[in-house]
TrEMBL record:
The keyword Chloroplast does not apply. It comes from Aquipseudomonas ullengensis. Residues 83-147 form the Flagellar hook protein FlgE/F/G-like D1 domain. One of its GO terms (cellular component) is cytosol. This is Flagellar hook protein FlgE. It is found in: Bacterial flagellum basal body. Its main location: other. SUPFAM superfamilies: Flagellar hook protein flgE. Keywords: Bacterial flagellum, Cell projection, Cilium, Flagellum. Residues 391-436 form the Flagellar basal-body/hook protein C-terminal domain. Residues 165-188 have a biased composition (Low complexity).
């Protein structure tokens, strides 16, 4: 009996050493979760029960459980490295074989798919052609590396203040080359269908108290006929309180809309370019404006007794852009940044969690697969429900505490020695009996 008890102790101590050694070996493995050997005592069963004073029959390894406590977050230089701060696992697919991991070594393959260091594809919500997330449809996340197509300008939103103390210019008629013929001016870039930038310039000329002319040139030319420098003109008036008076808006070339915005119809602008000669000859560049024209929103503008100033201006057009970088926020949304200053959603990473993470089956490569004991995965976006947040440019360190594991080594070694001593003692006793005469 003592031999079997001692042997079970040796086997248990060996298992403990194996588990501890594996923890130590993976102390530097990102996303690794340490394990512990769990033991139970053994008693011999009899037909009529174990009796009131049963003798033990040794020890057995009841389970090797994993400890899924959080590892430290370690920041790296790779923007696509990802760490989970909280609950959840990354979902990866290897030709349809789904596995779960906490190791966030991610990059892109030659087709633009986000993959880990074993080539498994990261799962998440993709986007449609319009850039809208397809929530609820989990698929491989693919980064679109192609150039971003240009977008012609459709809307300009502008807020400015005209100085109410300005006087009517004495120089007439308006001449864009003569600053004495107008009071103020401002410019912004707008774009045609090919992504070419054009300078949209407004010249403000006071005509009477609370009344102004807004003269518009594009590239210093007439918008419809680039061979001319005559501007489009709109009448702009203000109330006695200095607010824009929408009832005064009018223009012979531009369309004043019912909501107070002003539209330059598509046919009223011919995108043009210079031949670079002296003097330059301007002609259409072969591109088109936005099909809906260009709408100018001045409704927040004012006329107060202060210097002319443009407090805000924005337009929705842009030129073509090349992919310059990727950013991932803490909810897993992937943004692509382009050289034209634009950004575009490329997808959203999802996480999975389980009712019993202890029940997951480890399959190596710092990955787990679902089992009957783990239950079905609950899939969602980071920071939703009980799922943790993502940290881009970082990795989760192994949760192995080396000092604890080294102490475990000492304990396992002592246990092994003690159980070996049990066998040695039983052997000596047996030899004594054999030597009886």
């Amino acid at each position: 009996m003592a031999f079997n008890i001692g042997l079970s102790g040796l086997r248990a101590a060996t298992s403990d050493l194996n588990v501890t050694g594996n923890n130590i070996a993976n102390a530097g493995t990102a996303g690794f979760k340490q394990s512990r050997a769990e033991f139970a005592d053994v008693y011999a069963a009899s037909v009529l029960g174990s009796g009131s004073n049963p003798q033990g029959s040794g020890v057995l390894l009841s389970d090797v459980s994993q400890l899924f406590n959080q590892g430290n977050i370690n920041y790296t230089q790779n923007a696509l490295d990802l760490a989970i701060n909280g609950n959840g696992f990354f979902v990866t697919s290897n030709n349809g074989e789904v596995s779960y991991t906490r190791a966030g070594y991610f990059g892109t393959d030659r087709d633009g798919f986000m993959v880990n260091n074993f080539g498994y594809k990261l799962q998440g919500y993709a986007v449609d052609d319009a850039g809208n997330l397809q929530n609820g449809v989990v698929s491989d996340i693919q980064i679109q590396t192609a150039s971003q197509s240009p977008r012609p300008t459709e809307e300009i939103t502008q807020t400015f203040n005209l100085n109410s103390t300005n006087t009517v210019p004495t120089t007439t008629p308006f001449d864009p080359t003569d600053p004495t013929s107008y009071n103020s001016s401002t410019s912004t870039n707008i774009y045609d269908s090919q992504g070419n930038a054009h300078v949209f310039t407004q010249y403000f000329v006071k005509t009477a108290a609370n009344t102004w002319n807004m003269n518009v040139l594009i590239d210093g030319r007439n918008p419809a006929d680039p061979s001319l420098t005559t501007p489009y003109t709109a009448n702009v008036g203000f109330t006695t309180a200095g607010q824009l008076d929408l009832t005064t808006l009018s223009s012979p070339e531009l369309t004043v809309n019912a909501d107070g915005t002003i539209t330059m119809p598509a046919g009223a602008w011919v995108p043009a370019a210079s031949d670079g000669g002296t003097p330059p000859v301007w002609a259409g560049n072969g591109a088109d404006p936005a099909a809906a024209g260009v709408t100018l929103d001045l409704r927040s503008s004012t006329q107060f007794s202060s210097a002319f100033a443009v407090s805000s201006i924005s337009q929705d057009g842009y030129t073509t852009g090349e992919l310059s970088g990727l950013e991932i926020d803490d909810t897993g949304v992937i943004f692509a940044r382009y050289t034209n200053g634009q950004s575009k959603v490329q997808g959203q990473i999802v996480l999975a969690n389980f009712a019993n993470v202890q029940g997951l089956t480890p399959v190596g490569k710092t990955a787990w697969v679902q089992s009957f004991q783990s239950g079905e995965p609950v899939v969602g976006t980071p920071r939703s429900g009980t799922l943790g947040a993502l940290q881009a440019g970082a990795l989760e360190d192994s949760n192995v505490e080396l000092s604890d594991q080294l102490v475990n080594l000492i304990v396992a070694q002592r246990n092994y020695q003690a159980n070996a001593k049990t066998i040695e003692t039983e052997s000596a006793i047996t030899q004594t009996i054999i030597n009886l005469r």
